[in-house]
Amino acid sequence: MERINLDERVEWSIEVRDAGSGAMLFDRTPDVVLRTASIGKLFLLMEIMHQVRDGELDLHEVIDRTRMSPECRCEDSGLLYLLEQDTLSVRDLGFLVGAFSDNYATNLLIERAGLDRVQSFAVAQGFERSALLDYVRMVRPANGIGDMSCGCASELCDYMMQLQAGSLVSSEASAQIERWLGADTDTSMAAGAFNVDPLAHWEESEPFRLRHKTGTESDVRCDVGFVRCMPTGRAVAYAILANWDKTRYGDLRDAVLADMRAIGDVMRRHLER
Asked: pLDDT tens across 23-78, in order?
């Protein structure tokens, strides 16, 4: 891939690989562990499908939020806190997580699946430095966990390599996780280079097949996924993680988003060759 000049004020963890050959296309400190905001929800979806595979959970099981811990409620990212409906299936909650990174739906699924189960299965699958660390909390205690998830690009890119190959947990599990992520509406980062319809890009007629998850905090931007160019058949898996020091540098979101979009542009040119 082409050389990319990235903002040096930002902590980066990046890995971009050709999904067919596994060849490294671009990296920047891919083993550095950073805060990843909502990216840890990928491990929640993986554990949900692990339990479905083993018969411990059914995608059509109905979750009644009035019967769950009131601490699960989050009036933040997502739609569920705005809705009147109290009951949703596990499958539908997964779509809220995949499409809108819904924090309320996330917490309901964590409570149902078990945070310890999410964490232990991720480690068992080889994700030793990337994890969902906690529930989503509107305010984090000063002496508690500093962020809801952490990760490094090398492991998160490997997650996407397995997902696009259909080998994450099982072929059926991979297909369901891919379907959830195929509804993601956030194309503000690297994924913006592919100009898909952010609200509807599952259709086979799309020139790019995009499956990804983003994570956002005031000093964090992350985009992790895979994308296939249907005309050429080329595909890449990628993990692009950025953290910065707001106290020292202020708000760098514009610079970070521009750099992430530049990486997406280079990925697109590689895919279209």
From this structure: 999 999 999 999 999 999 999 999 999 999 999 999 999 999 999 999 999 998 99
Beta strands per DSSP E along 69-122: 87-89
Q: Name, in order, each residue with C-beta under 8 angstroms of 46's C-beta and a sequence gap of 6 or more.
A: 118, 121, 122, 125, 159, 168, 169, 173, 177
Q: Is the predicted pLDDT of residue 196 greater than 70, yes or no? A: yes
Residue 226 CA to residue 87 CA, distance in Å, equals 32
**Nearest alpha-carbon partner for 194 in 93, 273, 267, 103:** 267
The per-residue pLDDT for range 201-235, each reduced to its tens digit, is: 998 778 999 999 999 999 999 999 999 999 999 99
Domain ranges (residues) in the chain: 11-272
The set of residues, in sequence order, having a beta carbon less than 8 Å from that of 105 and lying 6+ positions away, is: 78, 80, 88, 93, 94, 96, 97
Backbone φ and ψ of 27, nearest 5°: -150, 155
Q: Which of 76, 79, 78, 80 lies closest to 68, judged by CA? A: 80
pLDDT at residue 154 is higher than 90: yes
Q: Which residues pair with 63 in a beta bridge?
A: 88
Class of domain 11-272: alpha beta
Going from the C-alpha of 145 to that of each of 2, 45, 133, 141, 148, the distances in angstroms are: 38, 21, 7, 8, 7
